[in-house]
Amino acid sequence: MPILRPLRERESRHVTESLTSDGDLNGLRILVVEDEAAISLLLEDMLLDFGCEVIGPAARLSAALDAVAREQVDLAILDVNVAGEPIYPVAEALAQRSIPFVFSTGYGSAGIRDSFRDRPVLQKPFAQNDLKQKLIMARGKGAS
Prior knowledge:
With about 140 residues, this protein is α/β, with parallel strands linked by helices. The protein has helices at about 5-25, 35-50, 60-70, 90-95, 130-140, and strands spanning about 30-35, 55-60, 75-80, 80, 85, 100-105, 120-125. The strands form 2 sheets. A 5-stranded parallel β-sheet has the order 2-1-3-6-7, sandwiched between helices. The longest helix has 20 residues, at about 5-25.
């Protein structure tokens, strides 16, 4: 009987380690590009709950591009349309630096430019679990 207990402990530890290593966002620096204040605050609260450090939020394209150039960014959440401007210059800058990102939109993946259709899309409105899954997906996929 004592042999079974250590085996179970090792199995449960292995499962826990694989869940936290694959799903742990703690300490990541995440750029938020969102022009709607309520959504920015919601994203910031959710990211802080995950243990992330929030960069921004950037409510304008120029501020987002500046953040990409000046900050150390591990991951980004990009509203597809920021103050009437498409987000693609920021997406391209992130891709050039091999920084993974998630698009955030109320229009679904149909509104995403073809060259970025392989990126995770967070459909607005979203729940905290949806956000976490998309961030983990983006992080696992990398910026390739």
